[in-house]
Specification:
single chain; alpha/beta; Rossmann fold; 6-stranded mixed sheet; 4-stranded mixed sheet; 16 helices; binds 1,3-dihydroxyacetonephosphate; binds iron/sulfur cluster
């Protein structure tokens, strides 16, 4: 692509500056008006990590699994304006009908973890692993991955997983093959396999940069191969954070997301998906104390919703997920006004051949949960 073309492309994808100059009251008013006007033709799913200014307008809020399921059953909406990150909008596009259009209010809302596995690296790694282990491996991918990776997993007999169903899906996978390649989050893979009784010394790590398997031992003992990827938000929760809470607030419960490193999960009290964290704290008795290890927009919302409980972030210096935060009220209003004006912006359209194979992986998950 010529540099000039690239500049044109960027301009087309970028929200006009005028949206930054309009007041929040006016933008909120416009979002409400368009929602009312389009009724059931418009559907806005919002992930729990979205900002309040956006989540306030969501028709459904949920974790990755809930949003995937909701997208799959919604046949009424002509427009799905996805408030989440790119891989979630791709999943929604693949699970909805052809006529339904999915928009992502800001194309820059990616996921650093999903970007840690591209299809070339995966094909190269797979070939090497096949040479080392033969036809003994089933690939599983966390939904936090590109449509291309989901398609790769689908055509190789595997499935997608979310943090809500990773345990069930790993059990399912072990019924198919003796080894699992888990992409792209090594922490979710390690935490889940460990919970199922796989010892840490039977887990190897595949480094897609060096194309090497990191493992001290006999390859025959390897049961799980973890892709060397991680979430840059959840990696910021440390053993020191847990130790600090234990010392200063010994009666505080520590609950973390399984994207946190193994050492952190191992010494916390509870670990689970965003839905699991929300439910655990909602059901906890008044006056109970909680330190939460997950994204900050969600932690702040949980704190606001439970004034009767003492709740803090496990890491006091934690920031929100920067890419989730790219979806803000101006971008939501821009996407909705573009529909109203008949010139929709930022449509997510996964190619048909990729969709066909990725849906195999998604459906194997949806049928097993
Ligand atoms: P869940 O909502 O499935 O727990 O996922 C967390 C996450 O990091 C999404 O990007
Ligand atoms: Fe990706 Fe982590 Fe942000 Fe979730 S919180 S979107 S995994 S970078």
């Amino acid at each position: 692509m010529e540099i000039l073309d690239m500049v044109e492309f960027d301009k087309k994808e970028a929200m006009p500056n005028s949206y930054k100059e309009r007041s929040y009251e006016e933008l909120e008013q416009r979002v409400l008006e368009i929602k009312q006007k389009l009724g059931k033709k418009l559907y806005i799913p919002g992930h729990h990590y979205q900002k309040d200014e956006v989540i306030n307008f969501a028709d459904t809020t949920g974790d990755s699994l809930q949003l995937a399921q909701a997208s799959a059953i919604n046949k009424e909406a002509e427009w799905v304006v996805f408030c989440g990150v790119h891989f979630m909008a791709e999943t929604a596009d693949m699970l909805t009908d052809k006529e339904q259009k999915v928009l992502l209010p800001d194309m820059r809302a990616g996921c650093s973890m999903a970007d840690m596995a591209n299809i070339n690296q995966t094909e190269i790694g797979w070939e090497k692993l096949q040479q080392m282990f033969g036809d003994t491996i089933l690939p599983l991918t966390y939904v936090n991955s590109t449509a291309d990776i989901k398609a790769f997993v689908g055509r190789n007999g595997g499935a997608t997983v979310t943090s809500s169903n990773a345990k069930n899906m790993l059990k399912w996978a072990f019924k198919q093959k003796e080894r699992i390649l888990f992409l792209p989050d090594q922490h979710l893979g390690r935490n889940t396999a460990y919970d199922l009784g796989v010892p840490l010394n039977q887990m190897a790590v595949w480094d897609p940069i060096t194309n090497q398997l990191e493992y001290d031992g006999n390859y025959e003992d390897v049961v799980v191969i973890l892709w060397k990827g991680h979430c840059s938000v959840h990696e910021k929760f440390t053993v020191k954070n847990v130790e600090h809470i234990r010392e200063t607030k010994p009666d505080m419960n520590i609950i973390v997301h399984p994207e946190c490193p193994r050492e952190v999960v191992a010494i916390s009290d509870y670990a689970g998906s965003t839905k699991y964290i929300i439910d655990a704290i909602s059901q906890a008795p008044s006056g109970s104390k909680w330190a939460i290890g997950t994204e900050m927009n969600l932690v702040k919302r949980i704190i606001d919703q439970h004034p009767d409980k003492e709740i803090v972030s496990l890491n006091p210096f934690m920031c929100p997920c920067l890419t989730m935060n790219r979806i803000d009220l101006p971008h939501l209003a821009w996407a909705l006004e573009s529909i109203e004006q008949g010139q929709p912006v930022n449509q997510i359209k996964v190619p048909e051949d990729v969709t066909k194979q990725a849906v195999l992986a998604l459906n194997r998950m949806l049928e097993n949960v």
